[in-house]
Amino acid sequence: MKRVFFGLLVCLVSCCVQCVAEETLHEDIARIIERKRARVGVAVIIDGRDTVTVNNEERYPMMSVFKFHQALAVADFMDRKGLPLSAEILVKKEQLKPDTYSPLRDSHPEGNVSLPVSELLTYTLQLSDNNACDILFDYIGGTEIADAYIRSLGIDGFSISATEDDMHRDLDLCYANWSTPLSAARLLEVFLVRRLAGDSYQQFIKKTMVTCHTGENRLKKPLKGTDAVVGHKTGTGDRNSRGELIGTNDIGFVSLPDGRRYVIAVFVKDSEESAEDTERIIADISAAVYRHLCVR
């Protein structure tokens, strides 16, 4: 009986300590975002169980963060069709819209070139290429296919209904592709712990996110010079009719040298701050989470 009581006591103390730690992190994040002229939402899941959220009840425009969701849907499509990532797609000239961000178009201005799915995913995940994104939507059957697949994983609290071209033609549609921070964090967690498609697809996506070239001043900035491994996907919007930055986001997974890991999603919407200061909000939150785990 004494042994059982002691075990329960240890468990209770451990839970209390963890609750205090989570409350401290919540307070640190709340302190960072107070007085910011923006709405900021955050979700952190530590080692698959300890969860901290701030302003999670709102809908945040995902911007290019949804290209992570799309990549998982593409992998599922390829897996079900028995197709390798080397399978090629014919990129037509008319698919390379001129007035949007597209390194793909810059590299192949005349189009009519066949490219492997792996290369198009690299364009979307590493460079946030808008034309490559819409080409992949065409390939798998539209935004509704990606939306339905993510829901099939047990994830809710999000919506994918507009293509990049849709959002380019009507900025208000940027708000149609939305997510709560916790929804994005849960999807990252599912991606890390479950086999969603063949290993080759999943490992490719993970490696491509670790070598992502966008958003160097966001989640990754305070972790530079550490031994942490970071994979992430950014999203960046234009200013709306009120002059606010529609969405500046970063979601990612972080593996620490001691074997611990966490996923984190930070969404900043309708920011009146400068682009640099808006990115700094994300970096400061990332630094707070890292300190919480590594400097205690």
- Rounded average pLDDT: 92
Q: What is the number of strand segments? A: 10
Structural class computed from helices and strand pairing = alpha+beta
- Largest sheet, spatial ordering of strands: 2-1-10-9-8
> Could you estimate the helical fraction of the residues in percent?
40-55%
Give structural notes.
Helices cover 46% and strands 19% of the residues. With 296 residues, it is an alpha+beta fold. The strands form 3 sheets. It has a 5-stranded antiparallel β-sheet with strand order 2-1-10-9-8, with helices on both faces. The longest helix has 32 residues, at 2-33. It starts with a helix and ends with a helix. Residues 4-20 have low confidence and may be disordered.
Key features of this structure:
single chain, 296 residues, alpha+beta, five-stranded antiparallel beta sheet, three-stranded antiparallel beta sheet, 10 helices, 10 strands
